[in-house]
Model the fold of this input.
Amino acid sequence: MHDACGVVGISLKENCNNVAKSVYYALYALQHRGQEAAGIAVHDGKAIRIHRGMGLVAEVFNDAQIGLLRGSVGIGHARYPTTGRSCIENTQPVMVRYKDGAIAVAHNGNLVNSALLRGQLEQSGDIFNSSSDTEVIAHLLVRELLRHDLPEAMRAVMRKIVGSYTLVFLFGDTILAVRDPLGIKPLCLGEMDTGMIVASESAAIDTLNGKLIRDVKPGEMLVLRNGEVKSYRLARTQNPAHCIFEYIYFARPDSIMDGRLIYDARINIGQKLAEEHPTDADTVSPIPDSGITLAVGYHKHSGISYKECLMKNRYIGRTFIMPDQGMRETAVRLKMNVIKPNVQGHKLVLVDDSIVRGTTSRRIVDMVRKAGAEKVNVRIGSPPIMAPCYLGIDMASREELIAAYKTVAGVEAVINADSLGYVSHKGLVEAIGIPKEHLCMGCLTGMYPLEIPGEKCVAAQTKLTEYLALEGEDDSLLLKKGQRLGTVLK
Ligand code: AMP
Done:
């Protein structure tokens, strides 16, 4: 089960040459979005310099490496693989060279037609270094740049690629930031004393003591150069499709995403959960860490006292040596431990964000029962996850999703809870405060906002129609070559 990725792009004023430090700190703030690999690319005035590696941001970089990455413009990536194997070749930023120079790119999202595009490119002689869809995007851009100016080239690429993408390119002394036409994955723009930043989440902007200006609009391209920014709208969609899972689980609670503070959304979801699924429990506890804010919301609405019953070890990294079979229990307890006195003889309501395969919930219910809980009620801040995600969250295959083939009562039995309640679709949408027509709820409904082979599209076909328009059927929705929608900052 994999997280989405984190991307960042920073353009400092010309006289600053320590952009790598800022990118590093921003990546640190986005670490929750991907712990498998990290990378930074900077332009030093003459060429792109890049350093990438497997592991956490702090494991990949040290002072010396950061010191070598001199320049005023840079991009970064924290990776969890959604496409491509887990290996050094698939770490990002990806760099490609072409006749006019080099381009580095960092990508959050997943293309659904990447294999097709790669096949076409390979047919015409392109050679790839990795199995990631990001390299496909870079190749496509290079080809279009041979024929078009930048906005037109990017628009041509966007017509070809289908899926979710926020892309941050390093292109000479310039950063290009693009959000897909449906705005599936997040991207926001911020301002610092020393320059401009785009990042997956506003928490990264806060970390650099910057100010969030706004979200990048679906279908928009920003060009950051010398600490200034220009905006181009390359595609327009009536209904965006923001990933609902960002609000439920992925994003940091302190991030503001598409106008919503994630913390507020989660408090609201917890309150809805209490309203829809009350209990006679005496203690409400989160399943850490993702259940914390939801549990606070549940507590606020129900009045049931809030007490943490489980503690998570936050320091289990990639290098954690899994104990052998005989020590399975040790492994579980290493990751999560019960606070026994808070559990013993209590009627609990445990709040978590989601049940994917059901293994985590089952394990935790067993742990608290063993510690003496009298009753274990489970409440979940999302409706049942019954369909896979093709758009950037590598959750599980349909066969692995417990709710794909079991009723709520069936899941309740598997996880061994006294009661189980999921927040409703309606409750969730109200709690987030974004109309359901503007959300991607594919994993919760099995209906996707764009065409995915073998799957259903959202019934109100607007999203599909708009997307087909982007594919070139209705050019009136697209800007003419080179047309500029105005600059954000003067
Ligand atoms: P499972 O044991 O498969 O039911 O996993 C459910 C747990 O995984 C919940 O506690 C979630 O917080 C967490 N979770 C949900 N989605 C993801 C994801 N895409 N990546 C990592 N963890 C997740």
